[in-house]
Design a protein that fits this description.
heterodimer, A: 146 residues, alpha/beta, Rossmann fold, five-stranded parallel β-sheet, two-stranded antiparallel sheet, 5 helices, 7 strands, 37% helix, globular, B: 396 residues, alpha+beta, Cytochrome-c3 Hydrogenase, chain B, three-stranded antiparallel β-sheet, 15 helices, binds iron/sulfur cluster
Chain lengths: 146, 396
């Protein structure tokens, strides 16, 4: 019985994951590629992914950019507002570990310094294809119960 | 009626980047607006001082992902001037090619974002689909879609081959066709007119007073374009128009940007087939002689100003970036006043704000004898502008 419930939940989660995009101090490069992945040539909505404005509706938090010290409390707040289960995708070299901005005085570092990250998409910036590939892998992981 | 304050940002669906606007409302009308910046401050200028001149190029490029070429060009031009390097003509032409492609991609991006803000998502999808042609062209030239890293001190890093050239020219024709469609849309579509005409008014007088730049100034009938006023690279040999509009509203900004895409296509047609022969870069010494230089460049959003100082070592002694968005923010606060709350995201989007470009230093350093804190500098600036009749004291 329990396993059926789990299966249904996993099916629901992987069929329509809603995402929220948070810019934590990115140079915009990763942001425009994230938005580009929604547009006709790439169309991430094929996988049911939709970008949403409010963290309370979102399952996936897409973070771009190294965390600037001004943004760290805001990121934590957004993360805490999301309901469980939630997944974090760190997009770009900056979000993964600071990238070129490593060691800047206004920068805390990668996203994993603050919140647990489920998936890293490397690149500066990653191509929309890479981002879609990452999200599909994440969905595969969720389906597998990881 | 009681006044209420509505915060917009730093995280808000209408803002793609962190910034904060405090809107004071009376009913639906915005009576006052203040803004707060700095959420994206990373400390790139200080970081550039700990890199050598070549490394700093790629760091400065990452000030902004949309107009990265503008920033990098500005920076390398400064260093080349200090070092007294003569940049080959071919490299200059290639810089113009990438710069104009960047302008097209940025304007199409803006068109999409603005359409999204007025709820016209079909146009958003259309313009971003067409933008992919430019992205392809940029990828063919540089190998990357966003940070092209084409510039190096003394020239460019990659050449454009004959085959690539033909491919890009073919793409330009498609783009031109599509842009004409957008022009038709902008001039005939009644929903677009209803949402943009008379919204976010910035009369010429106010724009001048607030030192607006770029498409925002041009939409207020000020023919200000660094490519014409202070031409660098090969811009003085090119034939193009400075597009202006006297409607002074969001529609004017739309009009200016769409027509600028056509002008950029015209420039590319004049440069691409006639790339001068020769080398693409000259050798650079690792140490740059002492000196300082300021360069202006017309980025897609307006005038971008960079300052570089060298003290004769391998690293820059000081790098300063003044991005166009910073110059335009005072106008935003003005434009918001008197408009409806529902139009606020559109008015903010209309200047094509780029917060990552804008969020710069909090501390200004002089010699050890005259360390000047931002606080004092701010007070002085507020007094200076008060005399000109603008009140900056509410901007924090
Ligand atoms: S990874 Fe590159 S493109 Fe992405 S935010 Fe960092 S510098 Fe910009």
């Amino acid at each position: 019985m329990k396993s059926i419930r789990k299966q249904v939940a996993a099916w629901a989660r992987t069929s329509s994951p809603w995402a929220i995009h948070f810019n934590s101090g990115s140079c915009n490069g990763c942001d425009i590629e994230t938005v580009a992945s929604l547009t006709p040539r790439f169309d991430v909505e094929r996988f049911g992914v939709m970008l949403h404005g409010t963290p309370r509706h979102a399952d996936i938090l897409i973070v771009t950019g190294a965390i600037s010290k001004q943004q760290q409390d805001r990121l934590l707040r957004i993360y805490n507002q999301m309901s469980n289960p939630k997944f974090v995708v760190a997009v770009g070299a900056c979000a993964a570990g600071g990238g070129v901005l490593q060691g800047c005085y206004g920068v805390l570092g990668g996203v994993d310094k603050l919140i647990p990250v489920d998936l890293y998409v490397p690149g500066c910036p990653p191509r929309p294809e890479a981002l879609i590939d990452g999200i599909v892998k994440l969905l595969g992981g969720i389906k597998g119960g990881k | 009626m009681p006044k209420i304050t509505v915060p917009l940002g730093p995280q808000h669906p209408a803002l793609k980047e962190p910034g904060n606007f405090m809107l004071i409302l009376e009913g639906e009308e915005i009576v006052d607006a203040t803004l707060r910046l700095g959420y994206n401050h990373r400390g790139i200028e200080t970081a550039a001082e700990s890199r050598n001149f070549v490394q700093a190029t790629y760091l400065i490029e990452r000030v902004c992902g949309i107009c990265s070429h503008a920033h990098a060009t500005c920076y390398v031009t400064n260093v080349e001037h200090i070092a007294g390097l003569e940049v080959p003509k071919r490299a200059q032409a290639i810089r113009v090619v990438v710069g104009e492609l960047e302008r097209i991609h940025s304007h199409l991006l803006w068109l999409g974002v603005a359409a999204h803000e007025i709820g016209f998502d079909t146009l958003f999808m259309y313009s971003w689909r067409d933008r992919e042609h430019v992205m392809d062209a940029l990828e063919t030239i540089s190998g990357n879609r966003v940070h092209y890293s084409m510039n190096t001190i003394g020239g460019v890093r990659r050449d454009i081959s004959k085959e690539d050239l033909d491919e890009i020219l073919k793409k330009l024709s498609v783009l031109e066709e599509r842009t004409k469609y957008y022009i038709k849309l902008a001039t005939q579509e009644p929903t677009l007119h209803a949402r943009t005409k008379g919204v976010g008014m910035l009369p010429t007088k106010e724009a001048l007073k607030r030192d607006a730049c770029g498409p925002l100034a041009r939409a207020s009938a000020i023919a200000r374009d660094v490519r014409k006023d202070d031409p660098s690279l090969v811009y003085n040999q090119l034939d193009f128009k400075v597009i202006t509009s006297d409607s002074c509203d969001v529609f004017g900004r739309l009009y200016v940007r769409v027509f600028e895409i056509l002008e950029s296509v015209k420039i590319l047609r004049q440069v691409l087939p006639y790339l001068p022969e020769g080398p693409i870069a000259v050798k650079t010494p690792p140490k740059i002689p002492a000196g300082e230089w300021v360069t202006r460049y017309e980025a897609p959003r307006g005038e971008d100003v960079h300052y570089v100082k060298s003290d004769g070592g391998t690293n820059p002694a000081r790098v300063k970036v003044r991005a166009p968005t910073l110059a335009n923010f005072e106008s935003v606060a003005y434009m918001l006043k008197g408009d409806q709350l529902a139009d606020a995201p559109l008015i903010i989007a209309a200047i094509d704000p780029c917060f990552s470009c804008t969020d710069r230093a909090t501390l200004v350093r002089g010699g050890s004898s005259n360390v000047e804190l931002m606080k004092d500098l701010r007070t002085r600036a507020i007094e200076y502008y008060k005399k000109k009749g603008i009140d900056f004291s509410k901007v924090s």
